[in-house]
Amino acid sequence: MKRIVAIGLLCAVLGGASGAQAQAPVPAVQPDPSVRYGQLPNGLRFAVAKHGVQPGALSLRLLVGVGSYDEADDERGVAHFVEHMAFNGTRRFGEDQLESVFAPLGVGFGRDHNAFTSQVGTSFHLDLPSADVARLTPAFQWLRDVADGMVFDPAAVNRERGVILAEREARLEADDAWREPLADFRYRGLRSQTRQPIGAVETVRAADASRLRAFYDRWYRPENAMVIAVGDLPAERLEALVREAFGDWRGRGAAGVRAPRQGSLDVRGPEYLFDVHSHAPFAASACRVQPPRPGRGTPAALRDELAQALWMTVLDARLAARQGRDVLSALTTGETRPDARVVCVEVSPSAGRMGEAIAAVTAELTRFQQEGPTEAEMEAAVGQLRASHRGAVTQEATLRPEERADALMGQLLDGPPGPSAREAMRVFNLMAEELTTADLHAAFKADWAGSGPLLAVTSKEAVDEALVRAAWEGRHGPVTAAKGGATGQRTTVWPYERFGRDGHVVRREEVGEPGFVRLAFSNGVTVNFKQTRSQAGQVLVRVKFGAGRREIPDRDFQLALFGAAYLKQGGLGRISYDDLAALTRAMEWDVDLKVRDRAFELDGKTFATGLEAQLSFLAAYLTDPGFQPVLNGLAPVLTDQTIRNVRADPGQVTFMGLDEAIAPGAPINLPPPEVLLAARNTDFARVLKPVLTGAPLQVTIVGDVKEAAVVDAMSRTLAAIPARRDGSRQRADTWYRRFPAAAPGPIRLTHQGAADKAMVSLFWPLFVGAPDRRREEYALRLVGAVYEDALRHAVRERLGMTYAPAAGAAVWDHGDQGYFWVSVETSPRDLERVEAEVRALGARLARGEITQTELEASRTPLLAGWRRLQDDNDWWLDVLSAADQPEEMHALLKARDTVASLTLEEVRAAATRWLAPPPIPVLAQPAQTKEPKT
Predict the structure, then answer these.
(1) Pick from 153, 267, 261: which is nearest to 210 by CA?
(2) Is the full-model pTM beyond 0.85?
(3) Which candidate, 241, 508, 613, 777, has a CA 20 to 30 Å from the CA of 255?
(4) Which of 924, 885, 529 shows the shortest CA–CA distance to 706?
(5) Cα distance between residue 859 and residue 191, in whole Å
(6) Are the C-beta atoms of residues 760 and 828 closer than 8 Å to each other?
(7) What is the Rg, in whole angstroms, of the alpha carbon atoms belonging to the chain?
C-alpha cells in the first residue's frame, strides 16, 4: 500500500531557504603530474600513467560518453544492449572467439574483461596480468573494434536479447517492491527516473540490429570517448599504443544530440509517501531535490561541494547524538543525477518509535536551520575529512592498476583532469581554511531548498499517518535532549587506559617460509607479524581465539552468529558504541567478530598511525564486551530484516533448504523467527562473553608497519591482558552435516523474493576435508570452473536463459561433509529447460568429457587472479592466521602451485568419481508468479 499526500506549508525548518555566500578565492587545482593527459586530432581524449605496483600488469579502459540518460523514448535499454554486443562479434573477433583468445592469456571473463553502462557513460574494461606483445595486441585490437567495429549480426542480437532479459531478472529483488515507489516519489518528473540502464522490457524485446547500429553510429565517436591506460609501461609507450590503435578512428554519420541536463524541476511543495510492503524496512526520510550543480569539476563547484560535505558531517554528528531509545541510526545522504541533485536526512527508528524518531530528526534540522554549526563542530568536521584525504595520500602510490584506471575514468567523466591525492589535500586545506561557520550555515540553507521536503515512511505494517505528520511538522510534543547538549558535542574520553602490566617479548622467531616473524609475549599471547608494502599505510589485525563453532552448544549456535554480528554495536562495559564512534570519527578502525568452524576471529583494519588505538579497541572488546541494552532495540530490527532478506533470496533459500531436507532442525539452519526475535542482549552475552574474555589469544598483524611499532603497541594493549588459561575448549557433541546414504528426491522450495526469479541447483555429496585430500579438493574446484564456463556458453550465450551461472566445490576440514554444487538463476517459465541443460552438462563431465583446452581456458584466468591475490594484505592475513595449523598454512601457500600442477587425468578422475551418482536437485520458485514489469 502506498499513498502520496500533498499538504500545506510545514514549519520553517522544512521550508528551506537559500542563502547568499561570500565567495572566497578558490585555489587553482593542478592536474596529477604522474598522468599524461592528451587529445588526438580526431578528438579522442586519453590519460596514461606508468604504475608499476603490480609488475607487468596493465589496465585499459575505453569510456564512451553516452549512457541511458541520452536514449530516446523508444531506445530505453539500447545503450546497455550495445555494450553487450561488444562481446558478440566485432571486426576482428567472431561471436564465440573472445574467450578463446583472452582466457589463455590469463584474462578472466567478468573479472578482468567486462563492461558497464551507467546513465552517463559506457565503459569497457581489460585488466592484463602482463603487458607483453601477446596480450597488448589483442587487447588494443578489441578496444578499437568496440569503438567502430561492432558487427550487430541479427542472429547474435536475438541470442543476446535473452541474456539481457535474464540479467534484468537477476537484478530483481524483493526490495524493488518498496524501493521503486520511493524512487518514483523522490524523482517524479525527472528524465533520469525513466532512464535506468537496464532499460524497458518492451524496448529490449523490440530492438533489432538496425536500431542498435543507429545508436552506435550516433554516439560511438572519437570526440565522445576517452582511453585510459595504467600499468607497468612507460607513459610514452602507452601514449604511442593509444595513438596507433585509435588515431584513424572517425565517426559515422551525424553525431547524437544530448538530452538537457539543466532543466526546470516541477515545483513541489511538501508531500508525503507512506509505502507499506512486507519487505520494507522501518524507516523514514526527508529529501530536497534541486537542479544539478553547474560547472561540475570546476574549482567553484569543488568549494560548494566541500561546504556541503562539511555541513553534512556536522549534522551527522548531531544526529548520532540522538541515537538511543528512539533512534537506531540517522544520517544525511546525497545523490547527484544528470538532471538533479538530492539531499536527504534518513532515520531508522526503534521498534514502535517512529513518531519520536522523526521528531528528534526534525528538532536537529530546526536547530541547524536557525543556528548553523559552531566553530568546534566545524573544526571536528574538517579534521574528519582531512583524515580521509590523508589516507588517500598514503594509499595512492600502492593502488592496483585497475583501481587507478577506474579513478582516472571517474575524474574525466565528471570534468577536467583531476589532481593527485596530495594536491587534492592541499586544495582541501586551503579551501577549508577560508570557509567559516557562516559559509556552512549558508550552504545548508542553499542545499536544503528546492522541491520538497519530500517526506517518506516505509514499513512492513501500517503506521499512524497523523502521528508521522505531527512529528515532521514539529507538533509531536517534547523531544528527548540529544546526548552532549544542543550541538551533540560530547566530551567522552577513552576509559581503558591500561589493560594490565605492560607486556614484553620473551621469544622472537624468524620463520623463513613464508617469511614472517613470530613473537611470544610475557602473558602468553603470540603474534605472527609480516611487514608488507603492497598497500601503503594499511594494517590488518586478526585475533584468533577459542574453538569457534566447536565450543558453542548446538542450541546456541544461531545466537552466537547473530551476537557476533552485533558485538560492535553492543559497545563496551564503560562506553557505548555511539560514544566510541563519536570519539573516533577521524580514525579508521574496526571490530568484526566471526564464528569460524575451529576458532573465533576478531578482525580490525587501520593505518599504521592508528595501530595502538586499533589494538586498544580489540583489547577492550576482548576484556569488557558491553552487550549493552541498546541491542534490545537494535537487534530485533536488524534480525527481522535479515530473516526477510534470506527468505527473499533464491540462493540462500536453496542452500538452507538443502540442509533442512537432509537434517531437519539442524543448528546450522535458522530457527523460527520468533526465537531469534526474542533474543536479548543478555542472551548474546551469555553465549559469547565467556569465550571473548577467557580464551587464549593468537594475534596476526600484516601491513605497512615496522616490527618495533608492533611490539610497542602490543605491549600496552593485547600483551598487557592478564594471562589466560590454555586447554581444550572443544565440545564432543558438535553437530556436523552428513548426507544420508540414500539421497533425497527433488527438493522443491519457495522464496518470498521477486516473482520473476527461480533457481535450479544440483548437489553431489563429497567428503570431509583434510590436508591430505587437498589435490582432490582442488581438482574438484577446477571441475567447477569448467562446469561454470560450460553453463555460461550453453545457458547464457546459446539459450539466453541466465546471466551468471555458478558452480564449485565446498569442502571443510574435519567438519561438515562437503558437496559439489551448481546453481543457475532463471525465470520460472524456463526452469525445466534450464534444469535439463544443467543435468546434461553434469552428465558429460561425469563421463570425463573434459578437454585440455577447456581445462586451460578455466584454469589460466584462475591462476592469474590467484597471483594478484597473493599481493594483498587480506591473503597474508589468512595465511599467517593459520600458523597454528602448519598443514593448513602450507596448503594455502602452495594452493596456486597445486592447482597449476593438476593433470587433465586428475581432473577427469575427480569428475567421474564424484559426479557419477545422481545429484540432489533443489528447485526454488517464487511464492507467486507474475509477468515481468515493463
Answers:
(1) 153
(2) yes
(3) 241
(4) 529
(5) 45
(6) no
(7) 29
